[in-house]
């Protein structure tokens, strides 16, 4: 009976979000309350579970996501991303322009959320395509691939951070495994796949759409731009290297633990970048703070959706549904990582948003973490890969690609949707391979 209630609640959630167009936060809260009642929980316990789930989930990821949004805003507004793109273009030249675009998206995609990165980098794509009279999709798809992979697979982006928190995964190992999987996924679904798109869509010289770029004189230096984007990763890696290089003295151990906390790494990065990308370039502190406030507004709904998905997950736990699911999932003949990917891919097809699909899957698949010998770091990546599968007409990213690149729906399905599906399947293959090796 509990499984039937679960199926009903998931179908209701999908229907509310996709057909009725109900805000995802409201849909999650409504379904969480209804599910608690249908599972026979006292109403006071239902409210307590919703509060606990929302608070616990946001409490573990909210600061990191907010700091990541602030850093992304600064990287965008300072021109650091633009400088990186120009540098990569000059470094690789016309022959390897698609690899330059992919590497740019890879670096910029660490601090920037997908939609922000897309809007920011579109003018650069048009500029490069126009300069070489190349098809827009051929030039732009590798960059979009990298942005999408970083957004779906790797912290500090919202869905991966939420999954790491829910499944108690190790952020450094997850990031490391994610990089191993992300690189071949970006190369195959990006520059290599882009060769099949040369005849799709207009040339850069025929179509223009995008915001004005900053003058070169106003851009930060390339070293400053790259270090500011990668500093969170550098600091966390440094935390793991310090004990190896200097032993396990108490001071070294304390410093390593301090730097290894994602919140500290992100906070230090924002503080340092505020100076190097802002104050040092002559931008008033008040203007920088306005940008940070705007960044928080941009992700407010994302945070609420993550919190409400945590509320639904807590209802599943407190109603004892997790125990019933655990028995079924643990006894399932299907490998748990493959099962996680399939469930998330199905949610992505139904819900549209990769972030919503990922955090919804966290609640449904929470019992799977009890599977003996399961690597939770790879579980996070399996769900992340599934959350990118089959983007189509119910995904805002689908329409961004269609409208900005002047494509028909059929051409967008042939290019964007197929690219996202390639990334997802390659990600699954990488997860299963790593599971065999590690």
From TrEMBL:
GO terms for cellular component: plasma membrane. The chain crosses the membrane at residues 30-50, 57-76, 96-129, 136-154, 174-194, 226-246, 258-278, 299-317, 337-366, 378-398, 418-437. Keywords: Cell membrane, Membrane, Transmembrane, Transmembrane helix, Transport. Pfam families: GntP_permease (PF02447). It comes from the Bacteria. Signal peptide: none annotated. It is a multi-pass membrane protein. It is found in: Cell membrane. Its main location: membrane. One of its GO terms (molecular function) is gluconate transmembrane transporter activity. Belongs to the GntP permease family. NCBIfam families: gntP. This is Gluconate transporter. The lineage of its organism: Bacteria, Pseudomonadati, Bacteroidota, Sphingobacteriia, Sphingobacteriales.
